[in-house]
Amino acid sequence: MHPSPVPPLPRAPAELPRAVVLLFALASGLSVANVYYAQPLLDSLAHDFGISQAVVGGVVTATQIGCALALLLLVPLGDRLERRRLMAAQLLVLVAALAGVALARQLPVLLAGMLLVGLMGTAMTQGLIAYAASAAAPQARGRVVGAAQSGVFVGLLLARVFSGAVSDLAGWRAVYASAALLMLALALPLWRRLPALPATGQSPGYARLVGSMLTLLRQQKQLQVRGLLALLMFAAFNIFWSALVLPLRAAGLSHTAIGAFGLVGVAGALAGARAGQWADRGYAGRTSALALALLLLAWWPLALMEQSLWALVLGILLLDLGGQALHVTNQSLVLQARPEAHSRLIALYMLFYAAGSAAGALCGTAAYAHAGWQAVCLLGAGVSLLALLLWWRTREACPAPPRTAA
User: Fold this and answer.
1) pTM
2) Which residues contact 207 (CB under 8 A, 6 or more apart)?
3) What is the pLDDT of residue 116?
4) What pLDDT is stored for residue 400 in this prediction?
5) Which residues are CB-neighbours of 310 under 8 A, at least 6 positions away?
6) Structural domains of the chain sorted by starting position, each given as residue range(s) with its CATH number in brackets
7) Distance between CA 198 and CA 254 in Å, rounded?
8) 22 or 261: which leads in pLDDT
C-alpha cells in the first residue's frame, strides 16, 4: 500500500512578530554555540584528563559525530512531529548533556557527553531554522531564515569568545555549567512565544521518512548545487579558523585574546543576513556572485597577518561577510521547494556543511604544520576559487528562481 498523501501545510501567517523572529535568532545562536565551546579549551582538557594533544582531538571528533547523527536521525523528525514539543524535549536533553560534561571526571564520560552535546545542539539549531522557515510567510521566508541564520553565525563566532573568557576566569567546567543554565533559561520563552505548528507528515513512518532523504537529494538540483557550494565555503571557513589558533598561541596570545577575533566576524555575519531579503526579491544570483568574490578576496589580507593584525581583522570581516551571505542565500533557495520537507532539506544541506567543515579543519591544520601560514592562505584561496568556478558553471543549469517582494 502506498502512504496517504501528505496534507497541505496550513497557511503561514502574513508576518511573524519581530520579537518572535529575534527569539528564533537568539535560540539558534545559543544552541549552536554549545557545539563549538570546546575548540579553545583543548589544551585545558588535555591537561585535566592527562592526555596528549593528539588524543584530545577526539573531543572535537565526538562532537562532530554527534552533529552528523543529528542531521541523519533527529532533524528530519521536524517533518513528522509537532515542532514545539520536539524542541522542548531536545532542549532538556541538551541541558542534561551540558551538565554531564561539566561534571565529567573520566575521559569516556567526557566523550559521551560531547557526543550528546553535538547531537542535541545540532538537532536544536537546524530544527529551529526549519521551524522558522515553516512559520514564515512564503514571501518573507528568506528574511526570517536570514535572521535565524544570523543568530547561528553570531553564536558560532561568539562561542569562542565566551568559552575563552569564562575559561580564563573560572576554568573550562564553568563554560559548560554556564551553558546549561543559559539553555535552561531559554526553555520558557521558547515554549510560550514560538508558534504551535501542526506536524507536516502523518505518514510515512520514521524509517521511510529518513529513507526519503536520498530521494529528495536526487530530485532537488538546487539542493545538490547549493550543497556543494556550502561544502566548499565551510571548508574554506574552517581552514582559516582551525589553523588560526596555532600561530596566535605560538605568539603568546591568551584564549580570551584569540577568541576576541570572533567579535570581528559578528559585523560581517550581521551584514550578510540581509542576503535573505535579497533572495526574496529575486537577486540570489547576484548575491551569490558577490559573496563568493568576497570569500576569495578575504585571503589577501589574511595572508598579511604576520605583518599586521589589522590585515587579519579586515580579512575576518570579508570572510564572514561573504560566508554568511552565501549561506543565507543557499538556505533561502533550498527551502523554496517542498514546504512539507523543510526539516529534511535542512538536514541534507547541513550534511554538506558538516563534510566541508571536517575536511577544512583537517586540511588547515595539516597545511600549517607542513608549510606555515602562507600555505593555509593558499589552500583557503584555492578552495574559495573552486567555489566561485562551480557557481559560474552551474548558474544557467540551476538558476535562482525569480521572487518578488510582498
Assistant:
1) 0.72
2) none
3) 93
4) 59
5) none
6) 18-195+206-394 (1.20.1250.20)
7) 48
8) 22
